[in-house]
C-alpha cells in the first residue's frame, strides 16, 4: 500500500522536475546566446557551439542530481498518515530541487557576466596595444 | 538476487540515449574548437574529431554494458524505479562532470601552445 503511494509520488516528482530543468535551461541558454556573441566578438559559430556545449552539461548535471535525490524511503511514510507524509516528502524534494535550480541559474548568470567582463578587458588591452 | 534484463533496460535505455546524445553534441559543436586548434589542417581536425567520438562511444557504452547487470532484483515497481533512477543519475552526473572537464581541457590546450608547430 505504501509502495503504491511512493510510486505515485515518483510519477508526480519526475515530470515536475524534468519540466523545471527544461524550462530553466531554455530560458538560461536562450538569453545566454547574447552573452556568448559578446564574449566571442560576434563569431557566431563558436558562440552558438559554446552555448550548446554548456547547455548539454547543464542538462546532464541537473537531471543527474534530480534522479539521485528521487528515492523516498518507505520508513518515512506511516500507513495512517500516508498521503500527508507523501506530500511532505514530495514538497521537500521538489522545493529543494527548485532552490538548487535557482542557485544554478544565478551561478551560470554570474559566469556569463564574468566572461563578458573578461572579454571586454581583453578588447580594451588589445585596443591599447594597437595605439 | 540479480535483476533480470527487462528491469535493467529501464536503466540502460536512458543512459544509452544520454551517452549517444552527449557524444554527438560534443562532436558537432566541439568541431569548431578542434578546427581552431589545428588551423590549416582541417582534414586532420575532422578525422581527429571522428576518432575521438569513436573512442568516447567505445569507452562509455562499454562501461554501461559492463555495469548493466549490477542492480538487485526488486519486487515493487517503486523500488525498481528508485534503484534504476539512482543508477541513471550517477551516469548523468559523471557524464556532466567529464563533459565540463573536456571543455576545460580544450580551453587549456588552446592556451598552452602545446600543439603549435
Mind sketching the topology for me?
The complex is a heterodimer of chains A (131) and B (117).
Chain A: H1 2-39, H2 44-68, H3 82-130
Helix pairs in contact in A: 1-2, 1-3
Chain B: H1 5-37, H2 42-66, H3 77-112
Notes on the protein architecture:
In chain A, 85% of the residues lie in helices and 0% in strands. Chain A has 131 residues and is mainly α. Chain A has one domain (2-130). In chain A, α1 (2-39) runs antiparallel to α2 (44-68) and α1 packs parallel to α3 (82-130). Chain A is rod-shaped and about 80 Å long. The relative contact order of chain A is 0.15. Chain B has 117 residues and is mainly α. In chain B, α1 packs antiparallel against α2 and α1 (5-37) packs parallel to α3. Chain B has helices at 5-37, 42-66, 77-112. Chains A and B meet through α1 and α2 of A and α1 and α3 of B.
Any key phrases for this structure?
heterodimer, A: 131 residues, mainly alpha, 3 helices, rod-shaped, B: 117 residues
Concise overview:
Chain A contains three helices and no strands. Chain A is mostly helical and 131 residues long. The N and C termini of chain A lie far apart (77 Å).
Please report the number of helical segments of chain A: 3
Q: Give the overall pLDDT of chain B as a whole number.
A: 90
Strand content of chain B: under 5%
Supply the number of structural domains of chain B.
1
Number of strands of chain A: 0
| Whole-number count of domains of chain A | 1
- The helix-and-strand class of chain A reads mainly alpha
Largest interface: A-B, 29 and 33 residues
From the alpha carbons, calculate the radius of gyration of chain B and give it in angstroms: 18 Å
Q: What's the end-to-end separation of chain B, in Å? A: 57 Å
In N-to-C order, the SSE pattern of chain A is: HHH
Oligomer: heterodimer
- Tell me the series of helices and strands of chain B, N- to C-terminal: HHH
Amino acid at each position: 500500500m505504501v509502495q503504491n503511494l511512493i510510486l505515485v509520488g515518483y510519477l508526480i516528482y519526475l515530470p515536475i522536475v524534468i519540466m523545471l530543468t527544461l524550462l530553466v535551461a531554455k530560458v538560461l541558454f536562450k538569453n545566454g546566446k547574447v552573452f556568448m556573441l559578446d564574449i566571442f566578438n560576434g563569431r557566431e559559430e563558436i558562440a552558438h557551439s559554446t552555448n550548446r556545449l554548456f547547455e548539454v552539461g547543464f542538462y546532464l548535471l541537473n537531471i543527474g542530481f534530480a534522479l539521485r535525490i528521487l528515492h523516498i524511503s518507505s520508513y518515512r511514510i506511516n500507513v495512517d498518515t500516508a498521503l500527508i507524509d507523501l506530500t511532505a516528502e514530495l514538497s521537500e524534494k521538489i522545493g529543494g530541487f527548485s532552490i538548487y535550480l535557482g542557485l544554478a541559474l544565478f551561478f551560470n548568470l554570474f559566469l556569463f557576466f564574468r566572461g563578458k567582463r573578461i572579454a571586454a578587458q581583453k578588447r580594451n588591452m588589445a585596443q591599447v596595444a594597437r595605439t | 538476487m540479480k535483476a533480470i534484463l527487462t528491469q535493467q533496460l529501464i536503466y540502460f535505455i536512458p543512459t544509452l540515449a544520454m551517452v549517444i546524445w552527449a557524444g554527438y553534441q560534443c562532436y558537432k559543436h566541439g568541431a569548431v574548437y578542434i578546427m581552431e586548434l589545428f588551423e590549416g589542417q582541417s582534414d586532420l581536425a575532422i578525422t581527429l574529431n571522428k576518432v575521438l567520438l569513436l573512442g568516447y562511444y567505445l569507452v562509455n557504452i562499454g562501461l554501461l554494458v559492463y555495469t548493466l547487470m549490477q542492480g538487485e532484483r526488486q519486487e515493487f515497481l517503486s523500488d525498481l524505479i528508485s534503484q534504476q533512477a539512482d543508477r541513471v543519475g550517477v551516469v548523468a552526473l559523471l557524464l556532466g562532470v567529464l563533459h565540463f572537464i573536456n571543455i576545460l581541457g580544450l580551453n587549456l590546450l588552446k592556451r598552452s601552445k602545446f600543439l603549435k608547430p
